[in-house]
Amino acid sequence: EKNGFDHFMLKEIYEQPSAITDTYRGRLLVDDGIIRMAGVDDNLERFLNAKRIVIVACGTSWHAGLVAEYVFEDLARIPVEVEYASEFRYRNPIINSDDVVIAISQSGETADTMAAIKLAKEKGAFVFGVCNVVGSSISRETNAGAYTHAGPEIGVASTKAFTTQITVLTLIALKLAKAKGSISNSDFHMHLRELETIPQKVEESLKSNEHIQKVAFKYKDARNCLYLGRGFNFPVALEGALKLKEISYIHAEGYPAAEMKHGPIALIDEEMPVVVIATRKGHYEKVVSNIQEIKSRQGKIIGIVTEGDTSVRELADYVIEVPDTIEALTPLITTIPLQLLSYHIAVMLGKNVDQPRNLAKSVTVE
Ligand code: M6R
Hints:
By secondary structure, the chain is an alpha/beta fold. It contains 15 helices and 12 strands. The strands form 3 sheets. A 5-stranded parallel β-sheet has the order 4-3-5-6-7, sandwiched between helices. 46% of the residues lie in helices and 16% in strands. Bound molecules: 5-amino-5-deoxy-1-O-phosphono-D-mannitol. 5-amino-5-deoxy-1-O-phosphono-D-mannitol (M6R) binds at residues 58-61, 105-107, 110, 113, 156-158, 242, 246, 359, 362-363.
């Protein structure tokens, strides 16, 4: 049941440290310096010979696919395309027999994703599934796969499925990077060690809950909200916006921070909250200047920042701190405050958090 939490969504947000641990247990062998995943090991040649990887999914799972695009390309140097399953299936896609298709689905029952898999198989591609529900239709239809071990996800808004999908995909990317030699030994070991600390860092991030509740109270009456991020955290911005719209019915959009000036900046005024993922990594300075652009137009800024940050704090109306980690792993941490923010806003607005209007947990019709 809900284990003392008011909603399944909150319970599932808090389960993430253990869900991530369960997902890498037996796979991430830090002391031995190896990643063991039967579904990948048994098909290693297919992965290594792939000229590209095509990821198909819907909704939050599609966002996990976008994070994976950054991780695979950065670490394993394999070109990745991420497709909405619903678009892929109807546009006569070019699929080669040496393509690897990765289908991501929490439920394993999503109709569009299933149809995309069937099409890819017909064209001779090797299809690998990343599902949460054991024995689901998609897990049976795919040629091989790796389960996320998130446990049952009841809330319609996907939370722990997302972070465990990213965990599995990161493990695969690291494994392929090692096999291809596209990562140095020391970098590989550093990533393994760091991945093992993620559950603890998610736990740390959850400690901001009360502070996030205050931020939620401040912005709960907004009509619109923007989410910005760059690089690995651009998909996290999309996911943050989806979480807010599906459970609070506030209109929200996610953008790569630098796209602001190509249109969305016109929306900014003193009524517009802008959530900016601004961890002290890769594009930090550029994100800070994006924040300045918002500030000079009176936008309200909520910064998701690395512990101890000072530059964003000076500019932002609120900051929410998260622990530091290596760049490729930041999505696993920066997602947490965004989930909590949308949760609290929806609760304050009196919405049905676990079963939002018009939505079903698995979308088995097209
Ligand atoms: O079960 P799946 O992962 O295939 O579901 C895909 C989407 O329907 C799902 O992620 C949906 O977007 C969620 N409600 C998002 O929170």
